[in-house]
Amino acid sequence: MEQIKIERLTSGPKHHLFGFHDLLITNGVGDKYLSLEVDTMNRPPLPGELFGVGYVKNGQYVRIGETTALNYPQGARQQWVGETELFIVNNRVGDVWGTDLYDTTTNQRIDRFEATTHMLSKDGRYAYGLDYARLFRLGGYGYSGIVDKGVNDAMPKNSGITKLDMQTKKVELLVSVRQVAECGGASSGVSHHYLTHLCLNPSCTRVAFLHRYFMADGGLMTRLMSVSTDGTGLRCLAQGFLSHFDWKDNQTIYIFGRANSSLDALRNNSLLSNPLMAGPMKVVKKVAKFVLRRGNGGSNANAGKYFMMITDAERPVITPFAQGLITEDGHPMTNPMNGNWCINDTYPDKEGIRTLMLYNFLTNQCINLGTFKMLMDKPDMALAEKYFTGVDPKILGSISQEELAFTRSGLHCDLHPRWSRDGQQAVFDSIHEGTRQIYVAHVGGLIK
What we know:
A hairpin with a 5-residue loop joins β6 (79-80) and β7. The chain has seven helices and 27 strands. By secondary structure, the chain is mainly β.
């Protein structure tokens, strides 16, 4: 532990964040760290609210633009264009969610695109995007302020994953929600479907993503899907309770959850959506919870769940790993320079403590890097009606407004560790010092 140095990258009084755990935070040279800047974090974003866009260099935050496309868990999907001094960030472009392009040598916005970016290809040529208006309406990590055009369509043909050519500005639909929902016999009559959490493999030839919808008993079904970057080869790799993931290599994904259980298959049966089954479904749900608790020694939070390797193949092979070592959900990301290592974290425990850790796939070794306490503040509910304008009433009826407001506010600050481009630094968001800031763990001495 003497080799580990953790320092704060940004400072208050304003709050700074990056967001999710699946993007590189530094430029090619390694002297700039992308960051967003916000004035308040105790509530969800308001429609049309502006947030600072910029980077940190030499300990100073440089604000060079603004965006209205922000959610606190994932930020605005800001990311560097390859190893250049250019970066992109999602923003509103006219009446759609789109992408802004900035040049950090001039600190100016130099272009705009009418398509979103969730993840760029390594060479910066192609941007793969999601329908953030649909995500927001259905309770996912979207942006508020633009109406979902597919509000009346459970499985739209014109919504899904987009592919933007950054050179020609041509936009095509790589795969639609309907195509995904109809792949592998997913249930179609219970709820609206959406796609989220897309991630490119290291060679940028395949895209993995999550397909989600609600089952008859109200539970959320998640399917891990993959498709080639030319739109062919769509397949379902697993289904059940599936959470955060990353690619281990070009053929293997690792993910936390519970996959392909017979109980989830029963709950997913489309026949159970019949109104006459409402009573029996309540019994099924109670039995499911009881069985899952028994299967995990009485613990409910992670009943029957674990990290697993899943091959990206027509007949996927699922292999559990780190059992008894990493026993709860986290946000993993593979080191960009050494695929034997990943960075990961935990959700807060009963005392509100989050843990940052390294994991080695070869040695099955876990190294705790530090613990960081959450704030116990409650979200400001004064403008609750504005927070949730456009969210589906069924979503609002399934969770308390205060709980939803907390998870969509800056108070819900998961560490979400992500790597520097050289793989020597694990950079994470934290709130343990009273404001939300970005921190750096120097782990190069551990990763050989």
